[in-house]
Amino acid sequence: MSELSDSEPGDSSAELPGRGARVLCGGHLHPGMLFLRFLDGLRQSVVPVIVALLIDQPTLIVVALVFFVLGMGLATLRFATFSYQLTAEELVTREGVFRRQERRIPVDRIQDLQFESSPLRRLLSLVVVTVETASGQGSEATLDSITRRDALRLREALHRLRPETRLAEQGRGGRPLYRASAGELILLGLSDNRLGAILLFGLGLLEFGDQLGLGTELLLTFGGVARGLAGLDSILAVGLIVGLGFLLVLAGWTLSVAGAVALYHDFELEDRNDVLSRRFGLLTRRARSLPRKKIQRLLLEAPPLRRLFGLQSMRADSAGSSEQEDSAPGRDVLVPLSSRENIERLVPWLLQGASLLGRRFGRVSPKVILRTGMRGLILALVLAAAFWVEIGSGVVVFGILPLLGLAAGLLILKNAGYARDRSYVYFRWGILGRTHAILPLKKVQCASLRAGPFERVAGLARVTVYVAGGNPTTLPNLPRGEAEVLVRWIGSAASERPFDG
Amino acid sequence: MSSEFPNGPADESLPDGSSEIRPEDLPSPPLPTTPPTPMRVGETVSTSAGRIVAPLGPDDERLDPRVVTYWILSGLISILFLGAIAAGALYAFREQLPGGLERWVVGVIVVFGLLLVWQFVHPPLNYRRWRFRLDDRLLQVRWGVLVHEEKAIPMSRLQHIDLVRGPLERMFGLATLIVFTAGSEAATFRVPGLLPEHAEVLRDRIVSARGADVL
């Protein structure tokens, strides 16, 4: 990114942006951001303070206070020093006192100005403006927060300089590819695995209560409840317990459905001049763009439950995505959840010429069944030896493990495989669920083969393909000879395609 | 682009004003229905441009034989280091060891004995298996005794090349070539045990091949 520069100008008094360019639009952050930071700080101190009060550790309160004051200090500093200016050539942001930082983004590289606004910001009529460029690395600069009026003025000035961004802004000139329906988002929440997390949370609370010395009280309460239940008709008691369980499940489902809808409400995927643009969110509206050329790998994921109902999600890894995923929810998601047919129909619109429709996959070696069966057998023998003294002949139950291993092997054989065409390698794998990975040969950095001692005895090997984003893609249990040929094919096919981005 | 990819999506726009965009509304692209071709052992692979890549074989380049002694010596040094730590730990905890000191000493000696034997057996075998080849487009390596590994890296993906010479390597007159790609740490490529002059020749060859590819 040679056009961007983070510099530390020696004399801070230098008039920005220099070169005598006229400032079209500019300003500072709104003082409302201080209030927002203040609330943020309060929210972050709530848990430590409560914990401190519960376990009677006043030092924790002091620590929380220090962090709070520090955070506010930084926010004040940022508010006092941050400024932005738009000239005919550049958008310039600068901040900092001791270490002055200045960032210049050439206007003709700006892809999009995105406004994001949480409910609280909406109340203060503030927006967060993110500046996206064609680099595909997310936002280049963030203005957090300025008033909506200032933001609109900035956008208008940019539009006058670059009319084509106006088209992007209004969603014209783009080809709509996919829009999530309400039903799909509800299914996304329903098939989410958050229920387990909620149960764990409940257990954790119980454990916590126990540690605080509330254990006996809890036991008494439960005892009372149990006695009360015992006094009731047994059918009624069972009904009550089932009802309670049902309520818990319902609460979990409601929560995850609400979460899914809030995050992905009105999800739209569009292709604007080969840039995939997504907008989504109910309370906080998010926008992400990803140039099609930057896609390093496409992943189509169907975990067991979703696969049962023919549902999948799709995401794309871009360069450097593994490091950046943390702070941006839905950053790499292209389709939160849809039917398998829908998603497979979309694939050629994301990667030109790629398709899974009607594609036949070469299988992994049938020896995989032997391998997983052996693993089950070994595990069973170890467990049997370990529990022999305690449960005696009861260890027969471990006999189920080799059978499970064989079953898993059969499923892997059915699910795993690879395919290739002129421009792509396709891997797929899974036991109950299934994942497809589509890797453009243009993006392949390295192909490798690995065969450990046991794999060598069985004549198997695993093939791994590296691209510049996400984790490496690995397909184990291939016949050794086939794996060797595949690695050489991927390597030489990739070497015939010039690498870009 | 579209001429290069006859199977790409047709360049038609959607009818405007449809509120619900579903993938089924998109005109379906023609399917690539190339049947999967099974890959056979020893097959020379032809790709779309008709280029043929042969597997690494006995005729391909090996490392310098001196690398065996170098590997043995550097392995011995690390075993000595570990042995000193283990002996120190045994001495420090000699009172608290369950089951008597002798047993522990015997155990440690057995473990280190096995390590030592492996340290002498492994390098010659690894040397025998090590092969690499640089041609104008592809780098290939293979190595490993217990775990067999092979890597193929297209020249055009190389980011930069390092030539490293550690103190022990310098004593043996050897050098290691490290080749980096934009992929993760595991997508780097190390060729140890090269004569320095040879390593430099290889580096220049890689750089020039890369340059030709970029242009």
Keywords:
heterodimer, A: 501 residues, alpha+beta, seven-stranded antiparallel sheet, five-stranded antiparallel sheet, 15 helices, 22 strands, 47% helix, B: alpha+beta, three-stranded antiparallel sheet, 19% strand
Topology:
The complex is a heterodimer of chains A (501) and B (215).
Chain A: E1 6-7, E2 23-28, H1 32-54, H2 58-81, E3 83-87, E4 90-95, E5 101-106, E6 110-116, H3 119-123, E7 126-133, E8 139-147, H4 148-161, H5 163-169, E9 175-179, H6 182-190, H7 194-231, H8 234-264, E10 268-272, E11 275-280, E12 286-291, E13 295-302, H9 304-308, E14 311-318, H10 321-324, E15 333-339, H11 340-350, E16 362-363, H12 367-391, H13 400-415, E17 417-420, E18 424-429, E19 434-440, E20 446-451, H14 453-458, E21 460-466, E22 473-479, H15 480-495
Antiparallel strand pairs in A: 1-5, 2-3, 3-4, 4-5, 6-7, 7-8, 9-10, 10-11, 11-12, 13-14, 13-19, 14-15, 16-17, 17-18, 18-19, 20-21, 21-22
Chain B: E1 45-46, E2 52-53, H1 66-92, H2 101-129, E3 131-134, E4 138-143, E5 148-154, E6 158-164, H3 167-172, E7 175-181, E8 189-194, H4 196-214
Tally of DSSP helical segments of chain B: 4
Query: First CA to last CA of chain B: what distance?
Result: 19 Å
Net shape of chain A? globular
What is the strand tally of chain A?
22
Strand content of chain B: 15-25%
**Strand order, biggest sheet of chain A?**
15-14-13-19-18-17-16
β-strand amount of chain A = 25-35%
Level of helix content of chain A?
40-55%
Which whole number gives the mean pLDDT of chain A?
A: 82
Supply the helix-strand structural class of chain B.
Answer: alpha+beta
- Content-based structural category of chain A: alpha+beta
Q: Which parts of chain B are unreliable, with pLDDT below 50 for 5 consecutive residues or more?
A: 1-20, 28-36
Q: How far do the termini of chain A sit from each other? A: 12 Å
Largest sheet of chain A: 7 strands, antiparallel
Shape by Cα distribution of chain B: elongated
* Main sheet strand line-up of chain B: 3-4-5
Q: Enumerate the spans of chain A where pLDDT stays under 50 for 5 or more consecutive residues.
A: 1-17, 321-326
The helicity of chain B comes to 25-40%
Q: How would you spell out the order of helices and strands of chain B?
A: EEHHEEEEHEEH
Average predicted confidence as pLDDT of chain B: 77
